[in-house]
Amino acid sequence: MEQKIKDMIEKEIENAGYILDNVLYLKENNTNFLRIIIDKNSGYIDINDCVTVNDLLDPILDKIDFIEESYIVDICSKEKGSE
């Protein structure tokens, strides 16, 4: 599933000037997370970058809608996702 999502969103993320580092589907404390880890060549990822990517991906994820459980989309930087 993670690879399928990655394949569907990677080009859009790259077109927006970001790098898709990884896609993870995890359960933490009984909550499902779709964690999308991004990076960029021009420096540090900040909250505005995460919001930009979230707004870009929201309609795409709604359209593909193949995750049956409820989940939270978590757009984060490579540093957070590596923990």
General description of the model:
The protein has 83 residues and is an alpha+beta fold. The protein has a single domain, classed as GMP Synthetase, Chain A, domain 3 (2-Layer Sandwich). The protein has a three-stranded mixed β-sheet with strand order 1-2-3. It is globular. The model has no long low-confidence stretch (mean pLDDT 91).
Which short descriptors sum up this protein?
83 residues; alpha+beta; GMP Synthetase, Chain A, domain 3
Strand percentage, roughly?
A: 25-35%
Give the termini distance in whole angstroms: 22 Å
Overall geometry? globular
SS content category: alpha+beta
What is the count of β-strands?
Answer: 3
Arrangement of strands in the largest sheet: 1-2-3
State the domain count: 1
Mean pLDDT: 91
Helix content: 40-55%
Which parts are unreliable, with pLDDT below 50 for 5 consecutive residues or more?
none
Q: What is the N-to-C order of secondary-structure elements (H for helix, E for strand)?
A: HEEHEH
Major sheet summary line: 3 strands, mixed
Quick recap of the structure?
The chain is an alpha+beta fold. Helix content is 43%, strand content 30%. The protein has a three-stranded mixed β-sheet.
What is this structure's SSE topology?
Layout: H1 2-15, E1 19-28, E2 31-39, H2 47-64, E3 72-77, H3 78-81
Parallel strand pairs: 2-3
Antiparallel strand pairs: 1-2
Helix pairs in contact: 1-2
